Protein backbone atom coordinates (compact mmCIF):
# COMPACT_ATOMS: atom_id res chain seq x y z
CA UNK A 1 0.00 0.00 0.00
CA UNK A 2 1.50 3.38 -1.02
CA UNK A 3 1.96 5.69 1.96
CA UNK A 4 -0.48 8.15 0.38
CA UNK A 5 -3.18 5.44 0.47
CA UNK A 6 -2.31 4.77 4.09
CA UNK A 7 -2.78 8.47 4.85
CA UNK A 8 -6.23 8.39 3.20
CA UNK A 9 -7.11 5.25 5.17
CA UNK A 10 -6.16 7.03 8.42
CA UNK A 11 -8.54 9.86 7.47
CA UNK A 12 -11.30 7.31 6.88
CA UNK A 13 -10.50 5.63 10.21
CA UNK A 14 -10.97 8.93 12.05
CA UNK A 15 -14.23 9.62 10.23
CA UNK A 16 -15.62 6.18 11.02
CA UNK A 17 -14.63 6.49 14.67
CA UNK A 18 -16.25 9.87 15.26
CA UNK A 19 -19.38 8.96 13.28
CA UNK A 20 -20.25 5.78 15.19
CA UNK A 21 -18.64 6.30 18.63
CA UNK A 22 -21.29 8.92 19.43
CA UNK A 23 -23.94 6.18 19.36
CA UNK A 24 -22.14 4.25 22.09
CA UNK A 25 -21.70 7.32 24.30
CA UNK A 26 -25.22 8.74 24.22
CA UNK A 27 -25.97 8.10 27.94
CA UNK A 28 -22.69 9.77 28.99
CA UNK A 29 -23.23 12.72 26.65
CA UNK A 30 -26.83 13.14 27.83
CA UNK A 31 -25.68 13.31 31.46
CA UNK A 32 -22.85 15.66 30.57
CA UNK A 33 -24.97 18.31 28.85
CA UNK A 34 -28.16 17.78 30.87
CA UNK A 35 -30.56 16.36 28.26
CA UNK A 36 -32.45 13.10 27.81
CA UNK A 37 -30.91 10.21 25.89
CA UNK A 38 -33.46 10.50 23.02
CA UNK A 39 -32.60 14.20 22.66
CA UNK A 40 -28.90 13.38 22.74
CA UNK A 41 -29.61 10.99 19.86
CA UNK A 42 -30.23 14.08 17.73
CA UNK A 43 -26.46 14.56 17.73
CA UNK A 44 -26.21 11.55 15.40
CA UNK A 45 -28.71 13.26 13.10
CA UNK A 46 -26.73 16.51 13.29
CA UNK A 47 -23.61 14.75 12.03
CA UNK A 48 -25.54 12.98 9.25
CA UNK A 49 -27.12 16.29 8.22
CA UNK A 50 -23.64 17.81 8.03
CA UNK A 51 -22.57 15.00 5.69
CA UNK A 52 -25.58 15.42 3.41
CA UNK A 53 -25.14 19.21 3.18
CA UNK A 54 -21.35 19.32 3.18
CA UNK A 55 -20.65 16.77 0.44
CA UNK A 56 -22.00 18.81 -2.51
CA UNK A 57 -21.45 22.26 -0.97
CA UNK A 58 -17.80 21.90 0.07
CA UNK A 59 -16.95 19.93 -3.07
CA UNK A 60 -18.48 22.68 -5.17
CA UNK A 61 -16.68 25.44 -3.26
CA UNK A 62 -13.38 23.59 -3.70
CA UNK A 63 -13.94 22.66 -7.33
CA UNK A 64 -10.92 24.68 -8.52
CA UNK A 65 -8.65 23.90 -5.57
CA UNK A 66 -5.93 21.27 -6.25
CA UNK A 67 -6.88 17.96 -4.66
CA UNK A 68 -4.08 17.81 -2.09
CA UNK A 69 -4.74 21.31 -0.80
CA UNK A 70 -8.47 20.58 -0.64
CA UNK A 71 -7.81 17.40 1.36
CA UNK A 72 -5.74 19.41 3.85
CA UNK A 73 -8.41 22.09 4.21
CA UNK A 74 -11.19 19.55 4.71
CA UNK A 75 -9.12 17.63 7.27
CA UNK A 76 -8.61 20.90 9.13
CA UNK A 77 -12.39 21.42 9.31
CA UNK A 78 -12.74 17.83 10.57
CA UNK A 79 -10.23 18.49 13.38
CA UNK A 80 -11.90 21.76 14.36
CA UNK A 81 -15.36 20.13 14.44
CA UNK A 82 -14.23 17.35 16.77
CA UNK A 83 -12.24 19.62 19.09
CA UNK A 84 -15.24 21.96 19.25
CA UNK A 85 -17.39 18.93 20.15
CA UNK A 86 -15.04 18.09 23.02
CA UNK A 87 -15.26 21.57 24.54
CA UNK A 88 -18.91 22.43 23.80
CA UNK A 89 -20.41 23.74 27.08
CA UNK A 90 -24.06 22.93 26.29
CA UNK A 91 -26.26 20.84 24.01
CA UNK A 92 -26.95 23.58 21.44
CA UNK A 93 -23.26 24.24 20.81
CA UNK A 94 -22.53 20.51 20.80
CA UNK A 95 -25.23 20.04 18.17
CA UNK A 96 -23.61 22.76 16.04
CA UNK A 97 -20.15 21.22 16.55
CA UNK A 98 -21.37 17.78 15.42
CA UNK A 99 -22.89 19.36 12.31
CA UNK A 100 -19.54 21.06 11.64
CA UNK A 101 -17.67 17.77 12.15
CA UNK A 102 -19.94 16.08 9.59
CA UNK A 103 -19.57 18.76 6.91
CA UNK A 104 -16.21 17.55 5.47
CA UNK A 105 -17.08 13.83 5.70
CA UNK A 106 -18.52 13.33 2.20
CA UNK A 107 -16.12 15.73 0.50
CA UNK A 108 -13.13 14.03 2.13
CA UNK A 109 -14.25 10.64 0.87
CA UNK A 110 -15.12 12.04 -2.57
CA UNK A 111 -11.84 13.86 -3.13
CA UNK A 112 -9.95 11.02 -1.46
CA UNK A 113 -11.52 8.43 -3.79
CA UNK A 114 -10.48 10.40 -6.87
CA UNK A 115 -6.95 10.89 -5.50
CA UNK A 116 -6.66 7.20 -4.53
CA UNK A 117 -7.75 6.03 -7.98
CA UNK A 118 -4.87 8.01 -9.50
CA UNK A 119 -2.14 6.82 -7.15
CA UNK A 120 -1.93 3.37 -8.72
CA UNK A 121 -2.02 1.68 -12.10
CA UNK A 122 -5.40 2.15 -13.82
CA UNK A 123 -6.34 -1.53 -13.55
CA UNK A 124 -5.99 -1.34 -9.75
CA UNK A 125 -8.00 1.85 -9.20
CA UNK A 126 -10.95 0.14 -7.51
CA UNK A 127 -8.57 -1.68 -5.18
CA UNK A 128 -6.98 1.63 -4.22
CA UNK A 129 -10.39 3.16 -3.42
CA UNK A 130 -11.35 0.09 -1.38
CA UNK A 131 -8.11 0.43 0.61
CA UNK A 132 -9.18 3.92 1.61
CA UNK A 133 -12.62 2.59 2.64
CA UNK A 134 -10.79 -0.06 4.67
CA UNK A 135 -10.03 2.64 7.24
CA UNK A 136 -13.78 3.12 7.73
CA UNK A 137 -14.46 -0.57 8.28
CA UNK A 138 -11.47 -1.07 10.59
CA UNK A 139 -12.84 1.82 12.65
CA UNK A 140 -15.85 -0.38 13.44
CA UNK A 141 -13.52 -3.08 14.78
CA UNK A 142 -10.99 -0.95 16.66
CA UNK A 143 -11.81 2.76 16.66
CA UNK A 144 -15.45 2.68 17.77
CA UNK A 145 -14.98 0.21 20.65
CA UNK A 146 -11.81 2.04 21.75
CA UNK A 147 -13.49 5.45 21.54
CA UNK A 148 -16.51 4.17 23.43
CA UNK A 149 -14.35 2.64 26.17
CA UNK A 150 -12.27 5.81 26.43
CA UNK A 151 -15.38 7.97 26.72
CA UNK A 152 -16.92 5.71 29.35
CA UNK A 153 -13.79 5.71 31.56
CA UNK A 154 -12.36 9.22 31.03
CA UNK A 155 -15.49 11.13 30.07
CA UNK A 156 -17.18 11.47 26.69
CA UNK A 157 -15.18 14.59 25.82
CA UNK A 158 -11.97 12.55 25.79
CA UNK A 159 -13.27 10.51 22.85
CA UNK A 160 -13.65 13.61 20.68
CA UNK A 161 -10.24 14.89 21.77
CA UNK A 162 -8.72 11.55 20.71
CA UNK A 163 -10.41 11.82 17.30
CA UNK A 164 -9.08 15.39 16.97
CA UNK A 165 -5.53 14.14 17.63
CA UNK A 166 -6.09 11.38 15.09
CA UNK A 167 -7.21 14.04 12.62
CA UNK A 168 -3.98 15.99 13.17
CA UNK A 169 -1.99 12.81 12.48
CA UNK A 170 -3.92 12.25 9.26
CA UNK A 171 -3.36 15.88 8.29
CA UNK A 172 0.41 15.48 8.72
CA UNK A 173 0.41 12.23 6.72
CA UNK A 174 -1.59 13.82 3.89
CA UNK A 175 0.84 16.72 3.75
CA UNK A 176 3.85 14.39 3.71
CA UNK A 177 2.75 11.59 1.39
CA UNK A 178 -0.01 12.65 -1.02
CA UNK A 179 1.43 13.97 -4.29
CA UNK A 180 0.23 17.13 -5.97
CA UNK A 181 -2.61 16.48 -8.43
CA UNK A 182 -3.49 19.58 -10.45
CA UNK A 183 -7.02 20.19 -11.57
CA UNK A 184 -7.98 20.02 -15.23
CA UNK A 185 -8.47 23.17 -17.24
CA UNK A 186 -12.23 22.65 -17.25
CA UNK A 187 -12.56 22.28 -13.49
CA UNK A 188 -15.05 24.44 -11.62
CA UNK A 189 -18.42 24.36 -9.91
CA UNK A 190 -20.39 24.61 -13.17
CA UNK A 191 -18.39 21.76 -14.65
CA UNK A 192 -19.05 19.55 -11.61
CA UNK A 193 -22.78 20.41 -11.54
CA UNK A 194 -23.10 19.68 -15.25
CA UNK A 195 -21.62 16.24 -14.69
CA UNK A 196 -24.05 15.65 -11.81
CA UNK A 197 -26.93 16.25 -14.23
CA UNK A 198 -26.13 12.96 -15.98
CA UNK A 199 -29.10 10.59 -15.55
CA UNK A 200 -26.70 7.69 -14.93
CA UNK A 201 -25.30 9.55 -11.93
CA UNK A 202 -28.82 10.14 -10.63
CA UNK A 203 -29.83 6.49 -10.81
CA UNK A 204 -26.49 5.51 -9.23
CA UNK A 205 -27.15 7.80 -6.25
CA UNK A 206 -30.71 6.47 -5.95
CA UNK A 207 -29.36 2.90 -6.02
CA UNK A 208 -27.06 3.75 -3.10
CA UNK A 209 -29.88 5.34 -1.07
CA UNK A 210 -32.37 2.51 -1.56
CA UNK A 211 -30.04 -0.49 -1.69
CA UNK A 212 -27.78 0.46 1.18
CA UNK A 213 -30.83 1.54 3.15
CA UNK A 214 -31.55 -2.17 3.53
CA UNK A 215 -28.26 -2.58 5.39
CA UNK A 216 -29.09 0.25 7.79
CA UNK A 217 -32.63 -0.99 8.41
CA UNK A 218 -31.04 -3.82 10.41
CA UNK A 219 -27.84 -2.11 11.62
CA UNK A 220 -29.80 0.70 13.30
CA UNK A 221 -31.69 -1.77 15.53
CA UNK A 222 -29.03 -4.46 15.83
CA UNK A 223 -28.42 -4.08 19.59
CA UNK A 224 -32.10 -4.37 20.66
CA UNK A 225 -32.62 -7.20 18.14
CA UNK A 226 -29.72 -9.15 19.62
CA UNK A 227 -30.74 -8.54 23.23
CA UNK A 228 -34.51 -9.05 22.84
CA UNK A 229 -34.57 -11.87 20.28
CA UNK A 230 -31.19 -13.61 20.19
CA UNK A 231 -30.68 -13.33 23.95
CA UNK A 232 -27.20 -11.80 23.88
CA UNK A 233 -26.34 -9.76 26.99
CA UNK A 234 -25.80 -6.00 26.82
CA UNK A 235 -22.17 -6.45 27.86
CA UNK A 236 -21.50 -8.63 24.81
CA UNK A 237 -23.02 -6.35 22.16
CA UNK A 238 -19.78 -4.39 21.68
CA UNK A 239 -17.98 -7.59 20.71
CA UNK A 240 -20.80 -8.47 18.33
CA UNK A 241 -20.57 -5.07 16.68
CA UNK A 242 -16.84 -5.66 16.27
CA UNK A 243 -17.67 -8.96 14.59
CA UNK A 244 -19.98 -7.03 12.27
CA UNK A 245 -17.02 -4.78 11.51
CA UNK A 246 -14.89 -7.83 10.66
CA UNK A 247 -17.49 -8.79 8.05
CA UNK A 248 -17.42 -5.26 6.62
CA UNK A 249 -13.63 -5.38 6.41
CA UNK A 250 -13.71 -8.68 4.54
CA UNK A 251 -16.28 -7.28 2.12
CA UNK A 252 -14.19 -4.17 1.50
CA UNK A 253 -11.06 -6.23 0.80
CA UNK A 254 -12.94 -8.39 -1.69
CA UNK A 255 -14.78 -5.47 -3.33
CA UNK A 256 -11.69 -3.81 -4.84
CA UNK A 257 -10.40 -6.69 -7.00
CA UNK A 258 -13.92 -7.74 -7.99
CA UNK A 259 -14.86 -4.20 -9.02
CA UNK A 260 -11.67 -3.83 -11.07
CA UNK A 261 -12.60 -7.05 -12.85
CA UNK A 262 -16.36 -6.57 -13.32
CA UNK A 263 -18.07 -3.50 -11.85
CA UNK A 264 -21.75 -4.04 -12.57
CA UNK A 265 -21.78 -7.81 -11.89
CA UNK A 266 -20.15 -7.09 -8.52
CA UNK A 267 -22.84 -4.51 -7.74
CA UNK A 268 -25.65 -6.86 -8.81
CA UNK A 269 -24.23 -9.79 -6.83
CA UNK A 270 -23.68 -7.63 -3.75
CA UNK A 271 -27.22 -6.24 -3.63
CA UNK A 272 -28.88 -9.56 -4.50
CA UNK A 273 -26.86 -11.49 -1.92
CA UNK A 274 -27.52 -8.79 0.69
CA UNK A 275 -31.26 -9.21 0.19
CA UNK A 276 -30.94 -12.99 0.64
CA UNK A 277 -28.73 -12.62 3.73
CA UNK A 278 -31.26 -10.29 5.36
CA UNK A 279 -34.03 -12.81 4.75
CA UNK A 280 -31.80 -15.50 6.24
CA UNK A 281 -31.20 -13.32 9.31
CA UNK A 282 -34.96 -13.14 9.88
CA UNK A 283 -34.90 -16.93 10.45
CA UNK A 284 -31.46 -17.36 12.10
CA UNK A 285 -31.76 -14.50 14.62
CA UNK A 286 -33.34 -16.79 17.24
CA UNK A 287 -30.17 -18.87 17.64
CA UNK A 288 -26.87 -17.27 18.68
CA UNK A 289 -24.31 -18.97 16.44
CA UNK A 290 -26.35 -18.92 13.18
CA UNK A 291 -27.32 -15.31 13.91
CA UNK A 292 -23.68 -14.22 14.35
CA UNK A 293 -22.57 -16.07 11.21
CA UNK A 294 -25.36 -14.40 9.23
CA UNK A 295 -24.35 -11.00 10.65
CA UNK A 296 -20.80 -11.44 9.35
CA UNK A 297 -22.22 -12.10 5.89
CA UNK A 298 -24.53 -9.06 6.10
CA UNK A 299 -21.59 -6.86 7.08
CA UNK A 300 -19.44 -8.25 4.26
CA UNK A 301 -22.15 -7.90 1.61
CA UNK A 302 -23.08 -4.39 2.71
CA UNK A 303 -19.46 -3.31 2.39
CA UNK A 304 -19.15 -5.12 -0.94
CA UNK A 305 -21.68 -2.69 -2.44
CA UNK A 306 -19.82 0.52 -1.53
CA UNK A 307 -16.83 0.31 -3.89
CA UNK A 308 -18.71 -0.52 -7.13
CA UNK A 309 -21.25 2.24 -6.46
CA UNK A 310 -18.41 4.70 -5.82
CA UNK A 311 -16.56 3.72 -9.01
CA UNK A 312 -19.76 3.72 -11.06
CA UNK A 313 -20.58 7.29 -10.05
CA UNK A 314 -17.03 8.43 -10.79
CA UNK A 315 -17.27 6.82 -14.22
CA UNK A 316 -20.64 8.25 -15.12
CA UNK A 317 -19.73 11.78 -14.02
CA UNK A 318 -17.39 11.89 -17.03
CA UNK A 319 -14.43 14.18 -16.41
CA UNK A 320 -15.78 15.83 -13.25
CA UNK A 321 -16.02 12.89 -10.84
CA UNK A 322 -15.28 14.61 -7.53
CA UNK A 323 -18.77 15.85 -6.65
CA UNK A 324 -20.34 12.57 -7.77
CA UNK A 325 -17.93 10.63 -5.55
CA UNK A 326 -18.71 12.95 -2.62
CA UNK A 327 -22.46 12.77 -3.18
CA UNK A 328 -22.23 9.01 -2.81
CA UNK A 329 -21.60 9.56 0.91
CA UNK A 330 -24.55 11.90 1.17
CA UNK A 331 -26.52 9.02 -0.35
CA UNK A 332 -25.21 6.60 2.27
CA UNK A 333 -26.28 8.93 5.07
CA UNK A 334 -29.72 9.32 3.52
CA UNK A 335 -29.79 5.51 3.36
CA UNK A 336 -28.93 5.48 7.05
CA UNK A 337 -31.83 7.79 7.87
CA UNK A 338 -34.30 6.12 5.51
CA UNK A 339 -33.44 2.56 6.52
CA UNK A 340 -33.66 3.41 10.23
CA UNK A 341 -37.00 5.18 9.70
CA UNK A 342 -38.61 2.31 7.76
CA UNK A 343 -37.25 -0.29 10.17
CA UNK A 344 -38.66 1.74 13.06
CA UNK A 345 -42.06 1.94 11.36
CA UNK A 346 -42.15 -1.85 11.09
CA UNK A 347 -41.35 -2.27 14.79
CA UNK A 348 -43.88 0.40 15.80
CA UNK A 349 -46.55 -1.34 13.70
CA UNK A 350 -46.21 -4.37 15.96
CA UNK A 351 -44.43 -6.60 13.44
CA UNK A 352 -41.73 -7.49 15.96
CA UNK A 353 -38.02 -6.87 16.42
CA UNK A 354 -37.15 -9.14 13.50
CA UNK A 355 -39.23 -7.17 10.99
CA UNK A 356 -36.42 -4.72 10.03
CA UNK A 357 -34.63 -7.68 8.41
CA UNK A 358 -37.49 -8.15 5.95
CA UNK A 359 -37.76 -4.39 5.41
CA UNK A 360 -34.04 -4.34 4.65
CA UNK A 361 -34.37 -7.28 2.24
CA UNK A 362 -37.08 -5.47 0.28
CA UNK A 363 -34.93 -2.32 0.11
CA UNK A 364 -31.86 -4.27 -1.05
CA UNK A 365 -33.97 -5.97 -3.74
CA UNK A 366 -35.32 -2.58 -4.84
CA UNK A 367 -31.74 -1.30 -5.01
CA UNK A 368 -30.84 -4.26 -7.22
CA UNK A 369 -33.76 -3.43 -9.53
CA UNK A 370 -32.52 0.16 -9.81
CA UNK A 371 -28.97 -1.04 -10.51
CA UNK A 372 -30.20 -3.38 -13.26
CA UNK A 373 -32.29 -0.55 -14.73
CA UNK A 374 -29.16 1.60 -14.81
CA UNK A 375 -27.29 -1.19 -16.57
CA UNK A 376 -30.02 -1.50 -19.19
CA UNK A 377 -29.87 2.26 -19.75
CA UNK A 378 -26.17 1.87 -20.50
CA UNK A 379 -26.69 -0.55 -23.34
CA UNK A 380 -25.65 1.07 -26.59
CA UNK A 381 -24.46 4.18 -24.74
CA UNK A 382 -20.82 5.33 -24.72
CA UNK A 383 -18.79 4.23 -21.71
CA UNK A 384 -17.55 7.31 -19.88
CA UNK A 385 -14.47 6.54 -17.83
CA UNK A 386 -12.46 8.58 -15.38
CA UNK A 387 -9.05 9.13 -16.88
CA UNK A 388 -5.67 9.01 -15.25
CA UNK A 389 -4.20 12.27 -13.98
CA UNK A 390 -0.81 11.53 -15.56
CA UNK A 391 -0.94 14.85 -17.36
CA UNK A 392 -2.92 16.62 -14.65
CA UNK A 393 -6.08 16.64 -16.74
CA UNK A 394 -9.45 14.96 -16.17
CA UNK A 395 -10.77 13.35 -19.36
CA UNK A 396 -13.50 11.02 -20.51
CA UNK A 397 -13.29 8.15 -22.94
CA UNK A 398 -15.68 7.08 -25.65
CA UNK A 399 -13.94 4.16 -27.30
CA UNK A 400 -14.96 1.16 -29.43
CA UNK A 401 -15.31 -2.25 -27.89
CA UNK A 402 -12.47 -4.72 -27.55
CA UNK A 403 -12.58 -8.36 -26.50
CA UNK A 404 -11.06 -7.93 -23.06
CA UNK A 405 -11.18 -5.09 -20.56
CA UNK A 406 -7.44 -5.32 -20.04
CA UNK A 407 -6.59 -4.95 -23.71
CA UNK A 408 -5.52 -1.58 -25.09
CA UNK A 409 -8.33 0.41 -26.65
CA UNK A 410 -7.69 1.45 -30.21
CA UNK A 411 -9.45 4.34 -31.95
CA UNK A 412 -12.19 3.42 -34.38
CA UNK A 413 -10.58 5.47 -37.12
CA UNK A 414 -7.30 7.30 -37.67
CA UNK A 415 -7.17 10.49 -35.63
CA UNK A 416 -4.92 13.53 -35.59
CA UNK A 417 -1.79 13.18 -33.52
CA UNK A 418 -3.01 15.38 -30.67
CA UNK A 419 -6.32 13.53 -30.45
CA UNK A 420 -4.52 10.18 -30.53
CA UNK A 421 -2.33 11.19 -27.61
CA UNK A 422 -5.33 12.30 -25.63
CA UNK A 423 -7.21 9.07 -26.38
CA UNK A 424 -4.18 7.01 -25.43
CA UNK A 425 -3.88 8.75 -22.06
CA UNK A 426 -7.57 8.25 -21.42
CA UNK A 427 -7.50 4.61 -22.47
CA UNK A 428 -4.76 3.86 -19.99
CA UNK A 429 -7.24 4.55 -17.21
CA UNK A 430 -10.26 2.71 -18.50
CA UNK A 431 -9.95 -0.05 -15.95
CA UNK A 432 -10.24 2.45 -13.12
CA UNK A 433 -13.99 2.40 -13.52
CA UNK A 434 -14.55 -0.62 -15.70
CA UNK A 435 -17.96 -2.20 -15.65
CA UNK A 436 -16.77 -5.70 -16.41
CA UNK A 437 -17.09 -4.98 -20.14
CA UNK A 438 -14.83 -2.85 -22.30
CA UNK A 439 -15.86 0.69 -23.25
CA UNK A 440 -18.33 0.79 -26.10
CA UNK A 441 -18.52 3.33 -28.83
UniProtKB/TrEMBL annotation:
Query: What Pfam families does this protein map onto?
Result: MFS_1 (PF07690)
Q: Mind telling me which InterPro entries this protein's record contains?
A: MFS, MFS_dom, MFS_Efflux_Transporters, MFS_trans_sf
**Keyword line:** Cell membrane, Membrane, Transmembrane, Transmembrane helix
Q: Locate the Major facilitator superfamily (MFS) profile domain: which residues? A: 2-379
Spell out the subcellular localization from the entry. Cell membrane
Where is coiled-coil annotated? none
Q: What is its main location?
A: membrane
- The transmembrane segments are 44-63, 70-89, 95-121, 133-154, 160-180, 201-223, 235-255, 267-285, 291-313, 334-351, 357-377
Q: Give the domain of life.
A: Bacteria
The annotated topology with respect to the bilayer is: Multi-pass membrane protein
**Record-given protein name:** MFS transporter
What organism is recorded for this protein? Streptomyces griseoaurantiacus
Q: What is the lineage of its organism?
A: Bacteria, Bacillati, Actinomycetota, Actinomycetes, Kitasatosporales
